[in-house]
Design goal:
Length: about 400
C-alpha cells in the first residue's frame, strides 16, 4: 500500500494537580500535513507513458484487449478504452483520425456507416461527447471540399485554436490548396484549406509513406507513418513516433510503444494533464474517468467521478489538497471544506481519533511518538462509517502523533 494523504494532529499528555488529563495541542506550523501523490512526472507531449491512440487491427495492449473500433487511453502503468463505437455493425468500423478538444473526442472512420437513421461518411470528422457518450457530426467533409474517395487518416488541433491539421489516405485535390499527396499536411482555417507541410520537401518522406498520426505541441510536430522509415542513423517502424521541430528543422524519434507484431499505430493525441495533479484535463472538464490515469506508480484507478474541477489549477478550491489527491480520497475538489482530515482527538481510557471520511473508502490509522517515524499501526482496513469515522487507541497514555491514510481502490 502506498501512502497518499498524511494528516497529523498531536495529543499532549500533561499532569495537572493530582489528576491526569489529556490536552489536545495542534501543530501550529503544519496542523494538517499532506504528502503529495507519487505521480509520474508530467510529460511534455505524447509518448509511451502518455498517449491516446487508434490502431489498425484488434490487439492486446498492456494486458487489455482492444478492437480497432476502440480509441485507447494509456498512461505509464495502465491502458483502457478512451471510448468505443457501440452500435449494430460497429465491429466493421475502424477509428482512424483521433484528437481531443475540451470534452470532445474528434475522430474519423475508415468506412461510411450509420447510427440509427443518421449516416456518416469516411471523409467526415465526428465528435464523441465524453460527458454524455453521444456521437455527432463535427465536420462535414464534402461541405469543405473533401472528395468522397478520401479518408481522413490524421487530425490534430493547432494549439490555442479550433484550426485543424489534416492528412489523407490518398492523393486529393482540395479547394485553394490544390493537389495534396498522402504524405502532405494541410491546415483547415475558417473553412479554407492550405498546404501546411510538404511531406517530401519539409519532412523528407518517401512518396509511398502515408501519414497515420499528427500531433502539434509548440514547435514540435509529432507524426506516425504506415511504413518503416530511415532518416540518418534513426530507423523507425509503423509503431514509432517521429518528431520534427519546425524551428530548428531537427528530427528525432520516440520508440517504446508496446504494440504487438503486425499492429500499426494510427493517429494519436497527448493524455494531457495541464496542472500536474494526476487527473487528465478531459477528466477534470467532464468528471468522467479516463482509463489511462492511475494512482501514481500503480494500476489503481484514479477517477474524479462524480466531481468536475479546473484542469488548469492543481488545487481547484485552494484547500491545500491537489485535485488528484481528492480523487483518491473521494472528496470534492471544488469545496474547500471537504477534504480528508483528522477532526478530533479525545482522551479518557484511551485516545479516540476521528476523521472526515467517505462511504466506500478504506483507511489505515498509524501513530508515533516521533512525527518522522510512523511505525505503530493502530487500525488497518477501517471502512468508512459515513461522513465521520473514529477508532480508539486504548493503550495510549503518552504524547502521540496520528496519521490517517486512505487506500487506493
Amino acid at each position: 500500500m502506498i501512502e497518499y494523504l498524511r494528516l497529523i494532529r498531536k495529543a499532549h499528555l500533561r499532569t495537572h494537580s493530582s489528576r491526569t488529563t489529556l490536552k489536545l495541542m495542534l501543530l501550529r506550523t503544519a496542523t494538517i500535513v499532506f504528502l503529495a501523490l507519487n505521480l509520474a512526472s508530467v510529460e511534455a507531449a505524447v509518448g509511451p507513458g502518455s498517449i491516446r491512440m487508434s490502431v489498425d487491427i484488434p490487439t492486446t495492449y498492456r494486458n487489455s484487449n482492444f478492437q480497432n473500433s476502440d480509441a485507447i487511453s494509456s498512461g505509464a502503468h495502465f491502458a483502457g478504452p478512451l471510448f468505443s463505437l457501440k452500435f449494430p455493425g460497429a465491429n466493421r468500423v475502424h477509428i482512424d483520425a483521433l484528437a481531443v478538444r475540451s470534452n470532445l473526442v474528434i475522430f474519423s472512420t475508415d468506412v461510411d456507416f450509420r447510427i440509427g437513421l443518421t449516416s456518416y461518411a469516411k471523409e467526415d470528422l465526428l465528435a464523441y461527447n465524453y460527458s454524455s457518450g453521444a456521437v455527432s457530426l463535427y465536420l462535414k467533409g464534402q461541405s469543405v471540399g473533401i472528395p468522397s474517395a478520401a479518408n481522413i487518416t490524421a487530425v490534430c488541433f493547432i494549439p490555442d485554436s479550433t484550426n485543424l491539421l489534416l492528412a489523407f489516405d490518398t492523393t486529393v485535390t482540395l479547394p485553394a490548396a490544390g493537389v495534396i499527396k498522402r504524405n502532405d499536411i494541410v491546415t483547415l482555417q475558417n473553412g479554407t484549406f492550405s498546404k501546411w507541410a510538404d511531406g517530401a520537401a519539409n519532412l523528407g518522406l518517401r512518396s509511398n509513406a502515408k501519414l497515420d498520426g499528427l500531433f502539434l505541441s509548440g514547435n514540435n510536430l509529432y507524426y506516425s507513418l504506415d511504413v518503416s522509415f530511415k532518416r540518418g542513423a534513426m530507423e523507425g517502424t509503423d509503431k514509432d513516433i517521429w518528431v520534427f521541430n519546425t524551428n530548428t528543422l531537427a528530427t528525432s524519434l520516440i520508440t517504446g510503444l508496446e504494440l504487438a507484431q503486425g499492429v500499426d499505430l494510427g493517429d494519436f493525441d497527448e493524455l494531457l494533464d495541464s496542472d500536474g495533479d494526476g487527473l487528465s484535463d478531459l477528466e477534470e472538464i467532464t468528471g468522467v474517468d479516463e482509463a489511462g490515469t492511475t494512482v501514481g506508480g500503480t494500476t489503481f484507478v484514479l477517477s474524479p467521478a462524480p466531481f468536475k474541477s479546473n484542469p488548469f489549477a492543481a488545487d481547484s478550491d485552494n484547500d491545500g489538497v491537489k485535485d488528484g489527491d481528492e480523487a483518491v480520497a473521494g472528496t470534492n475538489p471544488i469545496n474547500s471544506t471537504d477534504y480528508l482530515r483528522i477532526t478530533a482527538i479525545t482522551g479518557g481510557a484511551g485516545q479516540i481519533v476521528r476523521w472526515s471520511s467517505v462511504n466506500g473508502k478504506v483507511y489505515d490509522v498509524q501513530s508515533a511518538t516521533n512525527v518522522t517515524a510512523f511505525s505503530d499501526v493502530v487500525a488497518s482496513d477501517v471502512n468508512a462509517a459515513g461522513a465521520s469515522t473514529a477508532i480508539t487507541n486504548p493503550a495510549s497514555t503518552e504524547v502521540r502523533f496520528y496519521r490517517v491514510r486512505v487506500k487506493p481502490q
